[in-house]
């Protein structure tokens, strides 16, 4: 299988080539020329598989230049109930991503059972093993430059710490993450991990990652790669849990289900979009936003208008405080009939005017795509956490609460709706206390995390300074 850029400016490449590059050299995102197809018979045959076997089957469809036994080995060693077990009472960790029903038609897919208590671990743990394997074969090294709004950072660092040939430079928005998220990331003292707190929002941090990647000489000289969801390997690994969620929910191969996805950088919901394109019976994909509702606005009106840092609010679901969603480009590419020229035109408009509008047949395609959106506010989030606890005895984090709110707002009668659990409540103690009046339980291994020493460098949001920091530390 070959991959091309959404902007059409680079030669086609294979899976193992694109995963080390991250962003394409023309500034676009890599996408497969065609999505692999999964027939109903194949879906049926996947019913008995455990998560590692399912991950092998799905990944093998995307990683055509990798040996299947290598993929199987990586998946078997990644998706174990030892790694995905934080000790929550009553959870069936053997399923890795168990589906729990809150009521007859609304369920929660537990994606936050991994080492850093967020859904990012689902792909990131696999990426750690994958990168090490590919790099050692090629005898290469990789300097990962990433941006985080709170969860990608620790997931990447926990997955990459101590790995041969890999260094991680992670940019986080200063003062915009929860205390627990900060402590979780900054308390890693490994020699190959570098935390940089930048002034500004996640979008400013992500712009720096893209600007550094756009300097091709620097990118090549310092072997810069990415672990954000601009890297296709992240998306491919996230597609797997949509299959698992559907397999746990659907009673037969014709049953369509819906997914509600707490969204920020649009990577998670994009993985659902890809699963749907592959043939997974998905009726509806609900893009859940918080007060940073650029995506909600788009799915209501067709207008995509990004916001600057000053208008990207600090909310009680901080990991979703994003106004420039990278992966939205991959969805628009599909909506525009996989036409790179049209994508370039739209993204040039975005650059010059700060917005674009999809209308006519393109807007009709958006409306027919099965993707819709709902937003929730702080008050609704608090109320949902409370309700979920007192009515269903299930404590959700603020992001999952946004997902549940969107699920209940957009639900179609008779269609099972699965909300993705994107983080555990322990990461957002202050908001949980506001909602239910008690501190969330501390998962295994996180006792006393806030007392540990922290390692972080403060920096203005400046591309040149970040480059110099990388130069000094490689
Ligand atoms: C807890 C949590 N929920 C939701 C999101 C949004 O996911 P995505 O950026 O893939 O849209 C993130 C960050 O990515 C997150 O960390
Ligand atoms: N919410 C994320 C932001 C980055 O998203 P990614 O999926 O593109 O890595 C975070 O928590 O860091």
Automatic annotation (TrEMBL):
- List the Pfam families: PALP, THR4_C, Thr_synth_N
Q: Which cofactor does it need?
A: pyridoxal 5'-phosphate
SUPFAM superfamilies assigned:
Tryptophan synthase beta subunit-like PLP-dependent enzymes
Q: Does the keyword Acyltransferase apply?
A: no
Top-rank taxon:
Bacteria
> Does Hydrolase appear among the keywords?
no
Where the record annotates domain Tryptophan synthase beta chain-like PALP, the positions are 109-320
User: Listed GO molecular functions?
Assistant: pyridoxal phosphate binding; threonine synthase activity
| Pathway(s) | Amino-acid biosynthesis; L-threonine biosynthesis; L-threonine from L-aspartate: step 5/5
Identify its protein family.
Answer: Belongs to the threonine synthase family.
Q: What is this protein called?
A: Threonine synthase
Recorded source organism is: Turicimonas muris
């Amino acid at each position: 299988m070959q991959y091309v850029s959404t902007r059409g400016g680079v030669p086609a490449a294979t899976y193992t080539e694109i995963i080390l590059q991250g962003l394409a050299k023309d500034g676009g995102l890599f996408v497969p020329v065609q999505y692999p197809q999964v027939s109903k018979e194949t879906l049926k045959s996947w019913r008995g598989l455990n998560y590692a076997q399912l991950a092998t089957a799905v990944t093998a469809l995307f990683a055509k230049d990798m040996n299947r036994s290598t993929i199987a080995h990586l998946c078997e060693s990644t998706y174990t109930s030892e790694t995905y077990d934080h000790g929550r009472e009553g959870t069936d960790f053997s399923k890795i991503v168990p589906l729990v029903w809150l009521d007859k038609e609304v369920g929660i897919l537990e994606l936050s059972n991994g080492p850093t208590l967020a859904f990012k671990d689902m792909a990131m743990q696999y990426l750690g093993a994958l990168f090490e394997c590919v790099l050692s074969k090629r005898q290469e090294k990789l300097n990962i430059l990433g941006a985080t709004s709170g969860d990608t950072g620790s997931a990447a660092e926990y997955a990459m710490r101590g790995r041969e040939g890999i260094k991680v430079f992670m940019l986080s928005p200063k003062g915009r993450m929860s205390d627990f998220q900060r402590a979780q990331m900054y308390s890693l003292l490994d020699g190959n991990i570098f935390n940089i707190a930048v002034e500004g929002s996640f979008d400013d941090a992500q712009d720096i990652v893209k600007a550094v990647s756009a300097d091709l000489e620097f990118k090549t000289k310092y072997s810069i790669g990415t672990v954000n969801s601009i890297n296709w390997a992240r998306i491919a690994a996230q597609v797997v849990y949509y299959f698992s969620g559907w397999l746990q929910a659907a009673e037969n191969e014709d049953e369509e289900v819906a997914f509600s996805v707490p969204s920020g950088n649009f990577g998670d919901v994009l993985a659902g979009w890809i699963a749907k394109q592959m043939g997974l019976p998905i009726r509806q994909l609900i893009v859940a936003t918080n007060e940073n509702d650029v995506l909600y606005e788009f799915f209501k009106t067709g207008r995509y208008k990004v916001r600057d840092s000053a208008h990207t609010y600090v909310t009680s679901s901080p990991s979703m405080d994003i106004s420039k969603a990278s992966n939205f480009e991959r969805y628009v590419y599909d909506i525009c009939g996989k036409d790179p020229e049209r994508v370039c035109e739209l993204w040039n408009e975005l650059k010059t005017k700060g917005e674009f509008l999809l209308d006519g047949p393109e807007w009709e395609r958006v409306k027919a795509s099965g993707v819709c959106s709902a937003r929730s506010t702080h008050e609704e989030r608090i109320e949902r956490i409370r309700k979920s606890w007192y009515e269903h005895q299930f404590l959700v984090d603020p992001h999952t609460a946004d997902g549940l709110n969107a699920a209940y707002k957009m639900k179609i009668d008779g269609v099972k709706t699965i909300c993705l659990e994107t983080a555990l409540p322990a990461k957002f103690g202050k908001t949980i206390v506001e909602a239910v009046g008690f501190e969330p339980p501390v998962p295994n291994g996180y006792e006393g995390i806030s007392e540990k020493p922290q390692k972080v460098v403060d920096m203005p949001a400046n591309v040149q300074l970040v480059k110099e920091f990388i130069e000094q530390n490689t």
